[in-house]
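Quick start: read one record
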Amino acid sequence: MKITGINPLQAVKAYADRQPEQKMDKEPDCQVKDAVEISPQARELQLLKTRYHEVSDVREERVLVIREQLNRGDYKIDLDELAANLLMEICPEVKSEG
């Protein structure tokens, strides 16, 4: 079978005549700098986030009161309330009865 149309020498010549890609050795003439502008609301949100992370999750006064009650032996746990709170954390759609 003979394929006609393009001479193989012409194809080789086309690849040989192709100019190599020119590299850009110098920087472009115009210098564009990226800029970000933060809105006042976003700045306030960042400030509030920072303050939130600085606040301790532990309420020291409450811990001291409970620790004193434990040491005295008069700290009482309401098991029904504890169970209801745990259930609400695990399954919030369940409403407590009563």
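Residues 62-98 form one domain.
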